């Protein structure tokens, strides 16, 4: 049997998955690492901790599998987008990995949006202006930490750092580069205007390569620790969003992937770059003739966790004592409330928001509270608010690529029948739940198989996954959701004028050390 490993470098863990050539999972490891949030808006990770997690994951999977020589054909990477690490001339980190969730560059992202330069850059890079991007982070570092900025010889992301550590070469795939805000999607090269705005030069960035590019010759020390032939090909792979589409077989025109994990996203694949005149959605490279257009949201399952921890602490404790899942208990409570939560609307912006409003200052709120509303209404409204927001991303996406032909939904939320049904009801469309528990890692492995000639076409992924559930919209809920979604959208627009004011107040008056 031939095998391929997909390595998914995520925000909180590395998932290492061994697949055979039928797409069946034959080995799995999930290695966690902390997210550092020492000051307001910070979200950093230690690149050495991530690198160790990757080594541990590869070692664990291979030891358990006990493969014969030649059985493992290669390893392929997925990585979270928008990370930034400053390296010195010896390729040693000067900073931790500043992640997509870091909002400290919000001031400079706002300036780009307001002065018109941001729109010019978006139209060339396909990356919306937001503090998540390395573009904004570089401007922030140049202005706020000039001495550190001047020390840097290289500006890279976490995947590039890992590859350098393993192979001694510094290169970056088109997909990860695309998400930096520095890459021109029409000439497939670093963009001169973006580099000038960021204050860096082309020779401070890695060499650009395709997502199917292969590297061999791993350093002997690491190969020995992992227990892998040093000449095993490593495929560059792509970023996590595009690979998630591939991993759930959402690469045909009109097939939309909706993902809700800790955060969420709505994405569809096109055969060429497409830009939204209103700047609400991204356009990221996957492979030749495959571009992923969509919008990410900050607030998915993390909102459900907040509701559980802050509003339902007694129930959480009870669930632990009864050895039942606390989220299942909350879902049962929410199910007793009618669709629409009796007119209670929740904007789920607990951590700012990306698509479709791209406002790092956005804050959450309940609207419509009356004495008749209970905590049960609040948990249902929170779940609905997450889906309302995803639906607004879908509306923006439709203006760019047209109406979806089908929806594939994945992520931790897919465990909940209530949430799956909400998605079908609010989107008013059938929702299919693919049977691929680690879609991003499977996408990485599939791209790797294609790069190494193990499969002829990416569409083979349809043979790798099954269908776990199909949910049909319930006409009984249409009247509630059709009435409430427009209110949700109008409120989002009206509240935006005050988001910056309340966010500034919180930054200057709230002691982050007291936050739970």
TrEMBL record:
Listed Pfam families: FGGY_C, FGGY_N
Asked whether the UniProt record includes Transferase among its keywords, one would answer yes
Q: Cite the SUPFAM superfamilies for this sequence.
A: Actin-like ATPase domain
Using the record's annotation, list all stretches that form the Carbohydrate kinase FGGY C-terminal domain: 257-452
What EC number(s) would the UniProt record show?
A: 2.7.1.12
The UniProt GO MF terms for this protein read: gluconokinase activity
Q: Which InterPro entries match?
A: ATPase_NBD, Carb_kinase_FGGY, Carb_kinase_FGGY_CS, FGGY_C, FGGY_Carb_Kinase, FGGY_N, Gluconate_kinase
What highest taxon heads this organism's lineage? Bacteria
Write down the top EC class of this protein.
Answer: transferase
Question: CDD domains in the record, alphabetically?
Answer: ASKHA_NBD_FGGY_GntK
* Domain Carbohydrate kinase FGGY N-terminal, first and last residues per copy: 3-247
Q: What keywords tag this UniProt record?
A: Kinase, Transferase
| Transferase as UniProt keyword | yes
Q: Which family does it belong to?
A: Belongs to the FGGY kinase family.
What NCBIfam families does this protein map onto? gntK_FGGY (TIGR01314)
Q: What is this protein called?
A: Gluconokinase
């Amino acid at each position: 049997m031939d095998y391929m490993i997909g390595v998914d470098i995520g925000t909180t863990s590395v998932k290492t998955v061994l697949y055979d050539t039928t797409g069946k999972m034959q080995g799995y490891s999930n290695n966690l690492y902390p997210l550092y949030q020492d000051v307001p808006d910070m979200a950093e990770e230690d690149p050495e901790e991530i690198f160790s997690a990757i080594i541990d994951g590869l070692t664990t999977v291979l030891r358990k599998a006990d493969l014969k020589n030649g059985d493992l054909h290669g390893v392929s990477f997925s990585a979270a987008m928008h990370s930034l690490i400053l390296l010195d001339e010896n390729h040693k980190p000067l900073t931790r990995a500043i992640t997509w969730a870091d909002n400290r560059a919000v001031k400079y992202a706002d300036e780009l949006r307001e002065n018109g330069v941001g729109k010019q850059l978006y139209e060339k890079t396909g990356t919306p202006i937001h503090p998540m991007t390395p573009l904004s982070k570089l401007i922030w570092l140049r202005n706020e930490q000039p001495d550190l900025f001047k020390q840097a010889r290289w500006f890279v992301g976490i995947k590039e750092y890992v590859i350098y550590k393993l192979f001694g070469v510094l290169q970056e795939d088109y997909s990860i580069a695309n998400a930096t805000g520095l890459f021109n999607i029409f000439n497939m090269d670093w963009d001169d205007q973006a580099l000038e705005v960021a204050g860096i030069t082309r020779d401070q960035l890695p060499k650009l390569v395709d997502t199917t590019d292969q590297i061999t010759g791993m350093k002997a020390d690491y190969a020995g620790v992992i227990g892998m032939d040093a000449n095993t090909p490593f495929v560059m792979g792509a970023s996590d969003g595009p690979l998630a589409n591939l991993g759930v077989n959402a690469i045909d025109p009109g097939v939309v992937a909706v993902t809700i994990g800790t955060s969420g996203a709505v994405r569809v694949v096109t055969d060429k770059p497409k830009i939204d005149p209103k700047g609400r959605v991204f356009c990221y490279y996957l492979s030749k003739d495959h571009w992923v257009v969509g919008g990410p949201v900050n607030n998915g399952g993390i909102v459900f966790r907040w509701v559980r921890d802050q509003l339902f602490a007694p129930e959480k404790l009870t669930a632990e004592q009864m050895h039942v899942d606390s989220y299942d208990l909350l879902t049962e409570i929410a199910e007793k409330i009618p669709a629409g939560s009796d007119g209670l609307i929740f904007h789920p912006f607990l951590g700012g928001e990306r698509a479709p409003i791209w406002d790092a200052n956005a804050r959450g709120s309940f609207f419509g509270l009356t004495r008749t509303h209970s905590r049960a209404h609040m948990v249902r409204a929170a779940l609905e608010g997450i889906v309302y927001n995803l639906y607004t991303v879908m509306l923006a996406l439709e203006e760019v690529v047209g109406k979806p032909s089908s929806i594939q939904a994945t992520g931790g939320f897919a465990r909940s029948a209530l949430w799956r049904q909400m998605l079908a009801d609010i989107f008013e469309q059938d929702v299919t739940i693919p049977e691929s528990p680690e879609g991003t890692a499977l996408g990485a492995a599939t791209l790797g198989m294609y790069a190494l000639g193990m499969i002829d076409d990416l569409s083979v992924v349809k043979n790798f996954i099954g269908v776990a559930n199909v949910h049909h919209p319930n006409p009984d809920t249409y009247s509630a959701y059709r009435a409430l979604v427009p209110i949700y959208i109008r409120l989002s627009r009206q509240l935006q004028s005050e988001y910056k004011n309340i966010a500034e107040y919180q930054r200057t008056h709230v002691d982050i050390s007291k936050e739970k």
